[in-house]
């Protein structure tokens, strides 16, 4: 029984990988850099994107693909800021899928004007496990980790922290009000992903959001492929 | 392809349901009330249990089954308080399962001295989606929702909020430092689960943890079955 289950899962990941490559080829053909933004529910993914969008990214044209189990609350928040947002709901799965997969993203791409974008940020479903297991064709993976979640999260969800090349440590404005040992969080981060780039940010006060904005612009420039489509 | 996937998932949930019933029969036979405690990563599930365990539950004998992707950090925290704790790691799945299922719990039951317990709290993997989809044989489902996660969580993860009969709104000690509209959270809660019981608590200050303790004792008494084993 367990072997059957593992087999089904391996097949699913194989199929996902094939579709992720197809997505990636489409992104590259249009010269669009894609960032998969992950994190726990309430870590502040949407709030950080709101901050990024509010001041824009210079001449980098940004679009957002918003993954949620149900509803379009986050997409609505972002669309208010006049950025092109496409919503994916995962509730068609059994009671709701806990992550985006390559097929869900592929199904949504018809609604995304890739030729009008330089950078597409895909906000994943809030979850520290499965989103790290399913590539969707992205070039970069970034996660948001809030200081209100405790110092041990890298040790408890190591795959997620290893999968990302940038960790945004959010809500640092709350540090004076928490019993939170920032050094311990950063040491735990280095235990599971030594030297991974990290930014201490606050979506609420805007602290260091500029650094994230610069990172996004740099990522768009580094992976930019001359559009052929 | 999609129909095949739905079929596989339905079969998996069917198998889970059968095993959950077997677990439930074992719990009932030993007169143990079982609570499935769920919530997002960092919501404060373990911290609340620490508070509960610290002062005990009177003559209700408490045990804990601790679900994590990897490691035993939470189990170690609780075991320090001299409560019997059993660890389940879900990392045997592909990169780690994001929830406990009935089979994982069943596999761990051999290590739990059910005949020495009145109440078993199963702390699920931190996740607002899949834990609500997999019964593990529990009598009661309780969730922890932290005020740092934002007001919209019930609308974004409705299945979880509907699945629970008690919602612990945690970290209320931080309310003065947050832009958080508690009334809006409670209204959203009533939208997806009208009238569901809720307690405003703080694992950090201990505020209203007594009420949770009383709820647990009451639950143990309500569902207590004369032990026949």
Throw out a few tags for this protein.
homodimer, alpha/beta, 229 residues, globular
Describe it for me?
Two copies of one chain form a homodimer. By secondary structure, chain A is an alpha/beta fold. Helices cover 39% and strands 17% of the residues of chain A. Chain A has eight helices and seven strands; from the N terminus they run H-E-H-E-H-E-H-E-E-H-H-E-H-E-H. In chain A, strands 3-2-4-1-5-6-7 form a seven-stranded parallel sheet, sandwiched between helices. In chain A, helix 7 links the parallel strand 6 (166-170) and strand 7. In chain A, helix 1 (2-29) packs parallel to helix 4 (102-109). The longest helix of chain A is centred in the first third of the chain and has 28 residues, at 2-29. Chain A is globular. The termini of chain A are far apart. The interface between A and B is large, with 49 and 49 residues.
The oligomeric state of the chains shown is homodimer
What share of residues are in beta strands of chain A? 15-25%
Q: How many DSSP helices of chain A?
A: 8
Distance between the termini of chain A: 47 Å
Number of DSSP-assigned strands of chain A = 7
Q: Determine the mean pLDDT of chain A.
A: 92
* Helical content class of chain A: 25-40%
Order of helices and strands of chain A: HEHEHEHEEHHEHEH
Indicate the radius of gyration of chain A in whole angstroms. Answer: 17 Å
Specify the structural class of chain A. alpha/beta
The general outline of chain A is globular
- State the major sheet of chain A: 7 strands, parallel
Most extensive chain interface and residues per partner: A-B, 49 and 49 residues
Q: Which ranges of chain A are low-confidence, i.e. pLDDT below 50, for 5 or more consecutive residues?
A: none
Strand order of the largest sheet of chain A: 3-2-4-1-5-6-7
């Amino acid at each position: 029984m367990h072997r059957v289950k593992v087999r089904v899962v391996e097949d699913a990941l194989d199929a996902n990988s094939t579709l992720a490559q197809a997505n990636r080829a489409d992104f590259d053909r249009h010269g669009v850099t894609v960032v998969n933004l992950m994190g726990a529910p309430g870590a502040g993914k949407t709030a950080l994107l709101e901050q990024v969008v509010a001041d824009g990214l210079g001449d980098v044209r940004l679009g957002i693909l918003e993954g949620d189990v149900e509803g379009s609350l986050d997409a609505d928040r972002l669309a208010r800021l006049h950025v092109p947002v496409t919503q994916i709901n995962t509730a068609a799965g059994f009671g709701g899928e806990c992550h985006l997969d390559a097929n869900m993203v592929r199904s949504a791409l018809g609604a995304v004007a890739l030729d009008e974008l330089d950078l597409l940020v895909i906000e994943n479903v809030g979850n520290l496990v499965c989103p790290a297991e399913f590539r969707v064709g992205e070039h970069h993976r970034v996660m948001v980790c809030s200081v209100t979640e405790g110092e041990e999260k890298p040790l408890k969800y190591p795959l997620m922290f290893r999968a990302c090349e940038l960790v945004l440590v959010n809500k640092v404005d709350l540090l004076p009000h928490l019993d939170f040992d920032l050094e311990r969080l950063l040491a735990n981060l280095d235990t599971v992903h030594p030297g991974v780039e990290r930014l201490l940010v606050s979506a609420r006060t805007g602290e260091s959001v500029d650094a994230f904005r610069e990172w996004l612009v740099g990522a768009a420039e580094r992976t930019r492929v001359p559009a052929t489509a």
